[in-house]
Write a sequence for this structure.
């Protein structure tokens, strides 16, 4: 028989506590220095496609490399290819806010690194998630029917698209069970409704769950109604489909649309959904955070009439990616549609039905301990601090809006609801252009203005097309943005426009 002695290998310990302490200090210092110098970088990365694949080695290193060398390469190769979402000059898309509390929460959840697919796999991960979801429910004044104390409950997903998929699957299975055994025939008749302002990830979610894209109704909105989903238009669309033998399944309402931050009228729309036995979901990905402030809570009036509600903490709640909070009125709608019960995972706690197994509330089996960073953020800043964070950005947006409104070279195209302003170069500023071409010329000049501003490297914004009008979206929400940065943007806008109009 051979020897059972194993010759010791001269290997590093990947989890040596003292080496972790040393390297972590270096990384923390690196990140702190990055934030100290963040305004020195162009806000939007200016590299060419393929820049990194040309500079990186073709093969992975065979031998370990010191953290000092790795951080040098991060500085040399990675940072130039980053669009700096945390820059105070970042006004594009919607914010992806960050904070010390969230960073530290990420360190803790990564340090513990549990795989909390069910309660037993890490009771603290499950129960802390339940706790923070109840805290948030109360902050938003959501109805008791969404609470664990009732038949509902909340779960943390990675994105709005994931919440769309899970609620669509729940709605689909519920509807198919109502219509009996001919699933394939019924599936082809299911219809999903939204507005033309609804986030495009709903369409992707429909594709994933097998909804025929010809059965996704994107209902046209108008500027005259501030791009809200019209109750009359929704009713007409649903009634037409019912007459055609189709089956209304799901409707999405939005609080804070991506193009303009429009808010759909939840109360009357939810009554229509109930009349046609549709699953009603509210997507408040961006604006949900604002609704922790009493002055914005009215935008959620009527939420008690829907089946599910979601918003993204990783946009405006000082919480890093990926953190989408979803509540449902009846948690069994999710668990019946998404549950698995393999022998490997069976345990006494789950068998009692007295615990939550979050694997049955989501697509994946594994899940991160995301509740830890939410818990850290809420405790670090408190409700008052979070409200002040929101109000600061709203005040800055009001300030920028007022500057635009006082200058006849510009037009604020839609009412500002939160902390985003949509504007263009006013057609009335184009006196030398024939009347019939002024909107077209305004679009061209506004696009040129955006490209010129973004090309400076000092700021970054994005655009939207609404009823044929090209608008610049100024989404104020980066954690580091202050009044001086908004004033800098205004000075730049004025300077660049003066140059454009002088040509």
């Amino acid at each position: 028989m051979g020897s059972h002695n194993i010759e010791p290998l001269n290997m590093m310990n990947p989890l040596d506590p003292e080496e972790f302490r040393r390297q972590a200090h270096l990384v923390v210092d690196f990140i702190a220095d990055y934030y100290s110098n963040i305004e020195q970088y162009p806000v939007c990365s200016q590299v060419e496609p393929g820049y990194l694949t040309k500079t990186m080695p073709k093969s992975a290193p065979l031998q370990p490399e010191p953290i000092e060398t790795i951080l040098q390469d991060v500085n040399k190769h990675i940072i130039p290819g980053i669009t700096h979402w945390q820059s105070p000059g970042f006004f594009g898309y919607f914010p992806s806010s960050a904070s010390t509390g969230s960073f530290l929460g990420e360190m803790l959840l990564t340090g513990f690194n549990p795989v909390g697919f069910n309660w037993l796999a890490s009771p603290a991960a499950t129960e802390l998630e339940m706790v923070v979801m109840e805290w948030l429910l109360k902050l938003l004044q959501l109805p008791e029917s969404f609470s664990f104390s009732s038949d509902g409950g909340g779960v943390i997903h990675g994105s709005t698209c994931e919440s769309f998929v899970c609620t669509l699957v729940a709605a689909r299975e519920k509807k198919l069970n109502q219509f009996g055994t001919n699933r394939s025939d019924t599936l082809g008749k299911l219809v999903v409704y939204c507005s033309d302002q609804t986030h495009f990830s709903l369409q992707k979610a429909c594709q994933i769950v097998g909804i025929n894209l010809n059965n996704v109704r994107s209902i046209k909105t108008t500027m005259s109604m501030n791009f809200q989903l019209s109750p009359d238009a929704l009713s007409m669309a649903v009634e037409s489909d019912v007459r055609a033998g189709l089956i209304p399944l799901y409707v999405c309402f939005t609080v804070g649309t991506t193009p303009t931050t429009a808010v759909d009228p939840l109360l009357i729309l939810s009554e229509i959904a109930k009349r046609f036995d549709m699953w009603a979901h509210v997507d408040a990905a961006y604006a949900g955070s604002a609704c922790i402030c009493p002055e914005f809570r009215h935008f959620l009036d009527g939420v008690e009439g829907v089946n599910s509600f979601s918003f993204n903490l990783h946009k405006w709640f000082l919480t890093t990616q990926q953190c989408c909070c979803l509540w449902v009125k009846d948690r069994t709608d999710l668990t019946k549609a998404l549950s698995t019960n393999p022998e490997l995972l069976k345990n006494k706690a789950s068998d009692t039905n007295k615990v939550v197994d979050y694997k049955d509330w989501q697509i994946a089996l594994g899940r991160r301990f995301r509740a830890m960073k939410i818990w850290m953020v809420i405790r670090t800043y408190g409700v008052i601090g979070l409200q002040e964070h929101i109000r600061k950005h709203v005040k800055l947006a009001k300030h920028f809006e007022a500057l635009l409104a006082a200058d006849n070279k510009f037009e604020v195209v839609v009412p500002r609801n939160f902390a985003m302003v949509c504007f263009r170069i006013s057609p009335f500023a184009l006196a030398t252009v024939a009347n019939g071409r002024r909107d077209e010329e305004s679009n061209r000049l506004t696009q040129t203005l955006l490209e010129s501003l973004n090309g400076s490297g000092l700021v970054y914004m994005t655009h939207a097309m609404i009823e044929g009008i090209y608008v610049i979206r100024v989404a104020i929400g980066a954690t580091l943005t202050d009044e001086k940065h908004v004033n800098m943007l205004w000075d730049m806008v004025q300077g660049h426009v003066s140059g454009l109009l002088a040509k």
About this structure: The chain has a mean pLDDT of 95. The first strand starts at residue 153 and ends at 157. DSSP finds 16 helices and eleven strands in the chain. The CA atoms of residues 52 and 77 lie 7 Å apart.
